[in-house]
């Protein structure tokens, strides 16, 4: 049996400039997605909601309205060049990460599938290559408008400063350098003063990113200035602050990041409501943790009980305390 797991993540600073060659600080979660492979003569896919399908031909790897929870695993198999009939195993997926919540749950699940199948077929790659392969599948096969933060956090894990200079969907994949991933976790005291609150509004990150991204592609001067210059500097300045334990500065930078997203209409009413509630109840910083238009809010608070109680009263769904965890793991029994 092969078991692979990968973590979710929350964007601390700089998002969404990982789509635009920018810089971010991101924290992995203890919540993880899991893929288990057991021996089988057939190629069988199964999700934790009970959906199950035997894959007989390449056509079976296309998205299906009948088995939507299997679409991510199918995309990974397709992207890895797996040919039905030439390999057999029973692949099962499950997750602890809220899906469509701005916490990279889909990417974590894809990373777990990629890791497990790679082990099965004997594919060995370094972490940067794995992150690049997962991102290519997400962007080219699933057609998701996405950056590079999610895939790198699923693979590397931890608490990282990441620089995506000269990377972007508008640049050919083979012309892009690898990202710079700088681990911060060993230099930052735990526990981190963060709380995550899900708005209860599910979203598709590609749909959330699309309107502002089109403005960026159209060379809108406001979007270009904010995403090319202003927001990436927040993460670069945040690196110094977080290493010095200057949480007040981190909070101020988070608030600036959120103000940019609000200004561009990329935040959303549900996010804005929880941000306001958090800041009025003990939090000194609050921002969206992912793409926006729903999803999850990240709060920096030294009064977590007070902040959490207010968020729940305001209608927040699941509450998570971010605990950085390792990236993609693969074990074989």
From TrEMBL:
An example GO biological process term is: isopentenyl diphosphate biosynthetic process, mevalonate pathway
Q: Which keywords describe this protein according to UniProt? A: ATP-binding, Kinase, Lipid biosynthesis, Lipid metabolism, Nucleotide-binding, Transferase
The keyword Kinase appears for this protein: yes
Superkingdom to which the source organism belongs: Bacteria
Can you name one GO molecular function term for this protein? ATP binding
Provide the GHMP kinase N-terminal domain boundaries.
Answer: 74-158
Mind telling me which GO cellular component terms the entry cites?
cytosol
Tell me the ranges covered by the GHMP kinase C-terminal domain, including all copies: 240-314
Q: Which Pfam families match?
A: GHMP_kinases_C, GHMP_kinases_N
Q: Which InterPro entries match?
A: GHMP_kinase_C_dom (IPR013750), GHMP_kinase_C_sf (IPR036554), GHMP_kinase_N_dom (IPR006204), Mev_gal_kin (IPR006205), Ribosomal_Su5_D2-typ_SF (IPR020568)
User: Which Gene3D superfamilies does the entry link to?
Assistant: 3.30.230.120
Write out the coiled-coil annotation as residue ranges.
Answer: none
Q: What is the protein name for this chain?
A: Galactokinase/mevalonate kinase-like predicted kinase
The species this protein belongs to is: Armatimonas rosea
**Highest classification ranks of the organism:** Bacteria, Bacillati, Armatimonadota, Armatimonadia, Armatimonadales
């Amino acid at each position: 049996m092969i078991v692979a797991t990968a973590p979710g993540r929350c964007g601390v600073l700089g998002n969404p400039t990982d789509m635009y060659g920018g810089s971010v600080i991101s924290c992995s979660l203890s919540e993880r997605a899991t893929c288990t492979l057991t021996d089988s003569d057939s190629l069988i896919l199964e999700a934790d909601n009970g959906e199950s399908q035997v894959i007989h031909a390449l056509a079976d790897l296309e998205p299906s309205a009948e088995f939507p929870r299997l679409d991510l695993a199918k995309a990974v198999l397709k992207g890895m060049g797996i040919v039905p009939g030439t390999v057999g195993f029973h692949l099962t997926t499950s997750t602890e990460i809220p899906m469509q919540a701005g916490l990279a749950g889909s990417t974590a699940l894809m990373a777990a599938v990629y890791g497990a199948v790679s082990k099965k077929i004997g594919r060995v790659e370094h972490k940067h290559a794995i992150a690049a392969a997962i991102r290519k599948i997400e962007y080219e096969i699933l057609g998701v408008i996405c950056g590079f933060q999610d895939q790198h956090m699923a693979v590397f894990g931890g608490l990282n400063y990441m620089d995506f200079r000269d990377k972007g969907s508008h640049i050919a994949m083979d012309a892009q350098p690898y990202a710079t991933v700088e681990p911060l976790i060993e230099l930052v005291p735990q526990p981190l003063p963060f709380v995550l609150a899900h708005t209860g509004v599910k979203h598709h990150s590609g749909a959330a990113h699309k309107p502002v991204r089109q403005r960026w592609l159209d060379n809108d001067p406001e979007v270009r200035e904010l995403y090319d210059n202003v927001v990436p500097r927040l993460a670069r300045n945040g690196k110094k602050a977080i290493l010095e334990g200057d949480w007040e500065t981190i909070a101020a930078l988070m608030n600036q990041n959120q103000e940019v997203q609000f200004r561009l209409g990329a935040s959303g009413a549900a996010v804005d409501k929880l941000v306001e509630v958090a800041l009025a109840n003990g939090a000194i910083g609050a921002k969206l943790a992912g793409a926006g238009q729903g999803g999850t809010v990240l709060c920096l608070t030294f009064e977590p009980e007070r902040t959490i109680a207010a968020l729940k009263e305001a209608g927040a769904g699941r509450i998570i305390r971010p605990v950085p965890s390792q990236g993609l793991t693969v074990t074989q029994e």
